Amino acid sequence: MNFRPQASKHIRLLLDNEKISFIFSPSYAVVVAIFLFKQIPSPQTQTVSEGQQKEKIISGSFDISKFRSDATWKKILTPSQYEILRNAGTETPFTGKLEYENRKGTYYSVGCDEPIFRSEQKYDSGTGWPSFWAPIQKDALVLREDISIPGEARIEVLDKCGGHLGHVFDDGPKPTGKRYCMNSEAMYFVPDKTQ
Known about the structure:
By secondary structure, this protein is of the alpha+beta class. It folds into 2 domains: 2-39, no CATH class; 48-191, Metal Binding Protein, Guanine Nucleotide Exchange Factor, Chain A (Beta Complex), CATH 2.170.150.20. It has helices at residues 26-39, 70-76, 79-87, and strands at residues 2-6, 10-15, 18-23, 46-49, 52-54, 57-59, 105-109, 115-118, 122-123, 131-132, 142-146, 154-158, 164-169, 179-182, 187-191. Strands 6-11-12-13-14-10-9 form a 7-stranded antiparallel sheet. It has a 3-stranded antiparallel sheet with strand order 1-2-3, with no helix packed on it. Strands 8-7-15 form a 3-stranded antiparallel sheet, with no helix packed on it.
C-alpha cells in the first residue's frame, strides 16, 4: 500500500493496483491508514470461506466450486454440524454416533458429500472420537496448520470445501502412525451393500 498525498486534504491509496481516494482532514489520515492496513491479509494466510482466514496449507487442495456463503451453509447444515464444520467446534467425546459404527462401508464429508475414509482405516483409539489411520485417498482431505491454541501447534483436517473435520496426530497405529481424530457430526456413513 502506497500513500501519496494529493492536495492538502486528500489521500490517495494504491491498494492491489486499485486507486482509492479519500477526502479527510489530515488528522483522520493516520486512523484510516491503520484501519486499512489491518484489513490486508498476510500472504501466509489462506482464505477458506467468506470471512474466515486460517493458517498455512500443509497438503491437499480445496475444490472452490464447492465453497458456499455463510448463509447457505446455515441453511444446508444442522446447527451442530455448522458449529463443527464452519466454526471448528468439537463434539463431546464418546457422544458421536459414528464413534461406535463397526460395519463395513465409507465415511463421507457432510459438507462436500465426498468420500473421506473407509471402515478398514478406522480403529478404536480410546479417545472418544472416530479415529482413522489414513484417509480413503491421499488427496481426499486438506491438512492445515492450526495455531488457535497458543503454544500448541496442531494439524487441522478439512474437507475439500473448507469444513473442519478434526485434527491429525502422530500417535496412531501402523502403517502410518497417524490418528485422524474426527467429529461424527462432520461425517455420515454409507454401509457397503454386501455385508
